[in-house]
Amino acid sequence: LQTRMQSLQPDPKAQYRTVYEALKKIVLTEGFWRPLRGINVTMLGAGPAHAMYFACYEKMKKSLSDTIQHGGNSHLANGIFGFLHKKKSSQLTALVKQRMQMFNSPYKSVLACIRTVQKTEGFGAFYRSYTTQLTMNVPFQAIHFITYEFMQEQINPHREYNPRTHIVSGAIAGAVAAAATTPLDVCKTLLNTQENMALSSVNISGHLSGMVNAFKTVYQLGGISGYFRGVQARVIYQMPSTAIAWSVYEFFKYFLTKHKLEKRTSL
């Protein structure tokens, strides 16, 4: 839904005003399973990425907080971790997912998409939005971690295991970070999908590349409001995503820590 709603010059059959309208129209005209297109490639990159993601989080958070604030929680440390953290899904995964989610996508499978793009556009096509992706990831992760830790301080000051507070904090953190970085995400989507109708309407032949060119093209096509296309879908997507990620992380952290303490006590 996010990919579709970020389209700057969509096909008349693929114009949506709200997330509900988009979901209803896609299901009715393209089939019940169409909104799940690209889920396999998303799952492929999610597991290893989140393992690295949270493995680094606690270690860097503690080290930076000890250095900056001599223990305790530091929003500056959380922001620095977000700055240092790399994008958790590969560029290839992002491009393939969005190509398969486009309206009237010609790709029948993940491998077919990879082969076709490589053959027709070259290997560099997978990295057209790489700079934009990294640029977006810095503020997204910084805002994400700072907001989560801030919310925990407000509603869970003793930092106890409390699923409700982890879910609420994670959802709010994801929503704030998603809304703030939507302009960069719109540019990334344009670079990944290379919308033919959009590029031809501004007399761009060939393929669009580069973050600066993407920003200029988005402004030409949609003005300031163009940078916030699909913001509703992006926020709705990120809220459960980050809420689930944080609640699962906090659960396993609690479970493993408790198990470790019990083992020490028994000895």
TrEMBL record:
Q: Record's Gene Ontology CC terms? A: mitochondrial membrane
Q: Which SUPFAM superfamilies match?
A: Mitochondrial carrier (SSF103506)
Matches recorded under Pfam families: Mito_carr
What membrane topology term does the record carry? Answer: Multi-pass membrane protein
Work out whether the entry's keyword set contains Hydrolase. no
Localization per Swiss-Prot or TrEMBL: Mitochondrion membrane
* InterPro entries listed in its UniProt record: MCP_dom_sf, MCP_transmembrane
Q: Which GO terms describe its molecular function?
A: ferrous iron transmembrane transporter activity
GO terms for biological process, alphabetical: iron import into the mitochondrion
Checking Gene3D superfamilies in the record gives: Mitochondrial carrier domain
The segments carrying the Solcar repeats are: 1-63, 73-154, 161-255
- Keywords in alphabetical order, please: Ion transport, Iron, Iron transport, Membrane, Mitochondrion, Transmembrane, Transmembrane helix, Transport
Highest taxon of source? Eukaryota
* Reactions this protein catalyses: Fe(2+)(in) = Fe(2+)(out)
Q: Which region is the signal sequence?
A: none
Keyword Transmembrane part of the UniProt annotation: yes
Q: Record's family?
A: Belongs to the mitochondrial carrier (TC 2.A.29) family.
Q: What is the stated purpose of this protein?
A: Mitochondrial iron transporter that specifically mediates iron uptake in developing erythroid cells, thereby playing an essential role in heme biosynthesis.
Q: What is this protein called?
A: Mitoferrin-1
Species per Swiss-Prot/TrEMBL record:
Pelecanus crispus
